[in-house]
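Recall the central idea of this unit: under ordinary conditions, the amino acid sequence of a chain determines the structure it adopts. In this exercise we apply that idea directly, starting from the sequence alone.
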Amino acid sequence: MKKEIFAVILFALYLISCQNNDQAESTQEVENTQTVAEQTRFFNPPIPKFNPRFSEYSVNTERDTTILHPSGTMIDFPANVLVDKNGNLVKGEVKIKFRELTNPLNFILSGIPMEYDSAGVEYTFESMGMAEMYAYQNGEPVFINSESEKKPVVHIAMDKRNSAKNQYYLDTAQGKWVYEGQAQITDLSKEKDLEKEWKKLSNVKINVQEPIEPKKESGRPSFFITIDPASVPELKQYDKLSFEITENEKKYKPEYAKTLWDNVTIDKGGRAGTYNVTFSKGEQQITFETYPLLPEEDLKKAMENYKKEKQIADRKRDSIKNLIAQQKEMIELERKRIEEYNRKLEENRKAYYARVKARNDSIARVMEKKERVYVALNFSQFGVWNCDNPMLASGNTIHALFKDEKNKEPFVPQEIYAVYKNYNARFPIGSYNNFAMKYLPGTETMIIGFDLNKDKVYYISPEDFEQSDKVKDQMIVLLKSKNINDVKDIKKLLGV
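Accordingly, the structure predicted from this sequence is:
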């Protein structure tokens, strides 16, 4: 089946076919269209003109297609997966509108809610990548066929991994996030670690205590020892414990039985089912290789106990074997995923370099990154999907008193958020909770707020925040202000 690869070059999009390298018509990044806006009508971007834009791609619905986004994110579109509003299969070319949101600034500027309610407790999402995607043909929205076994998959490229692992869909009709199981996360940097783990599992020795099968008396010399059988766990099924000299033991002499020994110890022998019985008296010591045995009248009961213990030991051994097999299977699946990602990335790199004849632009540098983390989001329907961890920020609760740095007068921006370096999340602060926020000493904390009517940003740097005056549970936060003409100005403030 023909497979096409798309790559974005700066703000233009090119189609790179694996077979014929035909060039498609270039397309610019697009504004958030009315159709998309209608589907996301309860989003509330603080400054609409800085709302992260969508990229637009053309896809032939009759071919399996991979779209390469400038960040390294890949979108797999199976053939024949789209239908129109009447459920009819869509054929021919469609327009895909896509954007990814991967850092706190994206989350804030998009206005997409990042709160999740569970059992009446409101959590904030820490994200491992969020994607929003729609499809259109002739200006009309088309949909993912619910009856199709294959679905579009967005593989979001991230530079590092956090604790997020769950997949959520934003149900705009209900106005809430819906849990959709766990996302598949593949860390390309873990390939060598997986090889080591595989070898480690392959060399595991399964040590399960095996019970000893009772033996009948064979006529060889034997002796009875008054010793607690519980001191040798695998012999616990014996009520009357005696030992018979093995056929290999040559040191035994009948006169040893006449000696009153001071001490006796029992240890596992060198051969399966044998035990070394050591007698000692003063400096004299002698050891015999023996079999534990029972007289005929006790053998039946001991054999029943042995079979029970053997079944328990077999179940333990099988359980450990199954666990090792499952872990090795998981490792093998992850290794195959890493191989597939690397294959796709190499394929995309070659196609891109063949197109632009250069390796020094920003997209090429992204393509050269080897140690990425990929988060696979399975789109069963178009909209917003997220890989998240619902969390409550740790630390002590403080109440912020915001003041203008210039005139020291109290004021509150219309929207304001705390951003912590260690969390890929944003935490809203507002009058609804008396401007409460978490204070994490030693953690870089930045406050950013917006005047929605003036395209103005208010902020305090991590250094200045750490120096803010704190009295009991209140902190005086002096906010600087800056008029924003370009989203790059906000990125510089947040360092993203």
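The chain has three domains: 3-190+330-389, 222-293, 393-494.
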